[in-house]
Amino acid sequence: MLLEAVKLALHSIRRNALRSFLTVLGIVIGVGAVIAMVTIGKGTTARVTADMAKLGSSNLFVSRGQFGPGRASSEARPFNARDVEAMRTQLSGLRAVAPVAQSSATVVYGTENRSTQITGTDSSYLTAQDWMLASGRAFLGGEIRAGRGVCIIGQTVRDKLFGRVDPVGHSIRVKNVSCEVIGLLAPKGQSSFGTDLDDVILMPLRAFQRRIAGNTDITRVLLSAAEGVATAKVQADVERLLRERRNIGPGKEDDFTVRDMTQLVETTAGTTAMLTALLGAVAAVSLLVGGIGIMNIMLVSVTERTREIGVRLAIGALENQVLLQFLVEAVVLSLFGGLTGIVLGLSLAAAAAVVLEVPFLVDPSIVLLAFGFSALVGIVFGYFPARRAASLDPIEALRRE
Q1: In this predicted structure, what is the pLDDT of residue 392?
Q2: pLDDT of residue 25
Q3: 391: exposed, middle or buried (C-beta count within 10 Å: 0-12, 13-18, 19+)?
């Protein structure tokens, strides 16, 4: 009986191909939108998490001031070399402590020039960031203490100034300072926020302070927790030490901020996942609209085929057989829409992944859920028209023109 109902359903769908296509269009759009949104969202979450990991998942950033409305970080006292030394000697569980001072400047090599970010730091910066060198070497202790005019450049700076030539051993001009290139950083690429991580020049902190910034300020301190040490413990120790050094009394607000990259990664991933779920829920509304469309067309079909239904009932067809026929027709329509929507959604997600440069991550559970939901839509919204068809009076149905 079921096989016969499926044959009748397929025959009816083929007989009204255009109407059937327009009927399932809502299901196709709904399923396709849900799968595309969720797949793109998962890829974006993975991309953001990977980009955050480039900054070091066990890192903490100590900045002056508090961030938020009405809070001016520039008014807070900057850090100094004694603060950095105190963190190195008085805190345990740290793999690296790197002072950071930054400024934008124009760099020149031959006839080429470029505006880029100059970072004053020491060799601990490479350790904290897990940043390898493609060629050359890191700063020597004597160069850091003496403030020598040496630098390590990123891949983007190398490409713009030197092309494919190895820059190690050449000299560039940073502002009005001659600087010998002693190392080339390995590429890290762009972050999810569009920042080019390779567009950077590292200089010894003392050289940067004397020749570029003109002061002894340290705007940030980069900390890296040792393996097996919780970043939450390191954060608490740093906050306690800095409150003591900056004479912040009990009950007073910190004039610095310690940001844990682990928490930041979790927060960012949670936010993108929530946005993905929201977009998926909005797209799922199309499934509801598609279900209503199926019910509407099936009701029209029942009206158009009243005489056919009456003939079947008059020659001995049971109500359950008529009910099954129309119910199967609605389910076949919705399943066809679901399959088409899955293909469409995955195709759109794959194309978007290429354009947005995010991983193409298919979640099988979402595909199965969308397909199952499309079948459920067919059953729920097809039942009422099918029930109406099965309950027709054969005599009244045969009298209908």
Answers
A1: 62
A2: 79
A3: exposed
